[in-house]
Amino acid sequence: MIRVTVWNEFYHEKTEESVRAVYPEGIHTVIAEFLGRQEDITVRTATLDQPECGLPPEVLAQTDVLIWWGHARHWEVPEEVARRVQEAVLCGMGFIALHSAHHSKPFRYLMGTTCNLSWREDGDMERVWVVAPDHPIAQGIDRYFDLPHEETYAEAFDIPEPDKLVFIGWYEGGEVFRSGCCWRRGRGKIFYFQPGHETFPIYRDSRVQRVITNAVRWAEPETRVPEVPCPNVQKPVLKFDEQ
Ligand code: ZN
C-alpha cells in the first residue's frame, strides 16, 4: 500500500463563502476521498491548525507521498516543519505540490528558487496539454483536457529546469504555463501540478483526479532511508605501502 498524507492549509474553506460553496468539507477531504477509493492507496489528512501542522516526525516517517495545498498562510508553517518535510523528501518521500503550493515553504526549499509566476483571476478556460504522453503521470489522459474555469498562471515561472515536463497549460487569454513538472531531489520525487484554484471545483474533475492518482504512484519511494549519511570513512579504498 502507498501511504499518502494530504496536507491542506484549510483556511479559506472556513472563512470565504465563495470557497466554502465549492469545498465545504475542505480541499484535503475531497482529495483524500478519491485517492482512498484506490485499492493500493491509504490516506490520512493533516492541516495547518493541528499541532506541528499535523506533520510530526512520526507522521512523515509513515508517509510515502505527501500532497500539499496552501494559499494564503504559507508563512505560518513553522520553519522546523518545513525543513522536516524537505529532509523527508531528500530521504525518499514523494512530494506533490498543488496549485498555489508553488509558494509553500517546502516546495521553495526543495527548488531553491523564488517559484514566482504571473497570475490573474478572471476565470479563464484552461486547456491542459500533455507534452509527455509516455510518462506515467499522463496515462489515461487524452492529448489535452479543458477546465472551464481556472485561475490563470503564466510564465515566467521561476523554477529550476524540470527533469521532465508532463503538461503545459494554455489559457484563453493567450498565456502558457508549465503546469506539470517533475524533479528529483536526493532520493525523493517531486511533482508540481498547477490546476486547483479554490473557487472552482477542479479537484472534483475526473481528469485532474486521474493525474493526481498517477502522480502518487509515480512518486512512491523507490528507496527510503532514515537519514542521508555523511560518514567519515577514515581509510582509503586502496591500500598503499607506507614509505
Ligand atoms: Zn489560486
CATH homology superfamily of the domain at 2-112 and 178-227: Class I glutamine amidotransferase (GATase) domain
CATH architecture of the domain at 2-112 and 178-227: 3-Layer(aba) Sandwich
**What is the end-to-end distance?**
57 Å
CATH class of the domain at 2-112 and 178-227: Alpha Beta
SS-based structural class?
Answer: alpha/beta
- Taken in chain order, the helices and strands follow as EHHHEHEHEHEEEEEH
In helices, the fraction of residues equals 10-25%
Rounded Rg: 19 Å
- Which ligands appear in the coordinates? zinc ion
- Please work out how many helical segments DSSP would assign: 7
Could you please say which CATH topology of the domain at 2-112 and 178-227 applies here? Answer: Rossmann fold
Major beta sheet, specifics?
A: 9 strands, mixed
Notes on the protein architecture:
The protein is of the alpha/beta class. The protein has a domain at 2-112 and 178-227: Rossmann fold. The protein is 23% helix and 30% strand. The chain has helices at residues 12-15, 17-20, 27-36, 57-61, 79-90, 105-111, 206-219, and strands at residues 2-8, 41-47, 65-69, 94-98, 118-130, 144-154, 164-171, 176-185, 188-193. It has a 9-stranded mixed β-sheet. A hairpin with a 4-residue loop joins strand 7 (164-171) and strand 8. Helix 5 (79-90) packs across helix 6 (105-111). The protein is globular. The mean pLDDT is 97. The structure holds zinc ion. Zinc ion is lined by residues 99-100, 151, 197-198.
